[in-house]
Amino acid sequence: MATLQDDAQIALTAEDLVVFTHIPKTAGMTFKKLLDRRFPAPQRPKIGPDYQASVDRIKSLSDEAKAQIRCLSGHLPYGIHKFFPQRRMQYVAFVRDPVDRVVSEFFFFAKQPQLLQLIGLEVGTKLTPQAYLEYQASIGMMDFQTRILCGYDNMIESMLPPYPEMKFEDTNALINNIVDSYALIGTVERFDESLLLINEKFNWNNACYVSRNVAARSNKKAELRQAIADEVRRLNPLDCQLYASIKKLIDDNIESRGQPFKEKLDRFHSKNRRYSKLWRVYRATGLRRLKRLVTRN
């Protein structure tokens, strides 16, 4: 499999199955919309909100039905390839600085307590940052990015917490194995650059998007980040190591492309600004002549 470590393009065919391993709070909704535009609905079955039920449904499909699937995206851990033994899997994902991801997730649940049942808490539970970290640790949610990307302990068969403790003798080998198992892993912090690298990898020709499900920056988030950063890093050593490794690979990959890639990125930013304006006009007016531009571009 061509990986993040090489520049080989992948000519996608019916043999390939693109799987987006969506780690929560890593710009996944934005990327999912891009996949939705690229793959027609019959080629990408609905995944979630009950992800275990979705996996069980996929497992039960006939070989003929599975052969029609070209893309799977959602909060799916690594491992779904076991149900598609005849296919060539192309896993993609994004990772995020562990501290930023935890802060974002805390505010997500604090503002939407009705969703706390997703992580096993009673609806309306009053959260404090420390209580949240302690609860996450108690159900095995620490190092969650690493857990999902390696599908630890056959996670695809049992996706709900609590999770068993992860034990690895060689964390460098673990991270290398994750990298080698994915066509590309991008970073949220260099989202646009990562999109262009994915386009290059799969020979796709467009990545214009409108950001989805993005929380606004705030002083409260900045203050919380400063207050819990050391504790989050202590509790998530594997995620910190994984993120640092992926970040370096992405940074090195971009640097190796030099000025041509920077110019390509500048052109993309300009195009994406125009696309975003068209999308806002379309959403406000419903003008049919804009529909093709904002749903297929």
Supply the key terms.
52% helix; 4 strands; 297 residues; four-stranded parallel beta sheet; globular; alpha/beta; 7% strand; Rossmann fold
Write the layout of secondary structure elements.
Blueprint: E1 16-21, H1 28-38, H2 51-59, H3 63-67, E2 71-74, E3 88-95, H4 98-111, H5 129-138, H6 144-150, H7 171-181, E4 184-187, H8 191-202, H9 219-235, H10 237-285, H11 288-296
Parallel strand pairs: 1-2, 1-3, 3-4
Please describe what this structure looks like.
The protein is an alpha/beta fold. It has one domain: Rossmann fold, CATH 3.40.50. The chain is built from eleven helices and four strands, in the order βαααββααααβαααα. A four-stranded parallel beta sheet has the order 2-1-3-4, sandwiched between helices. The model has no long low-confidence stretch (mean pLDDT about 90).
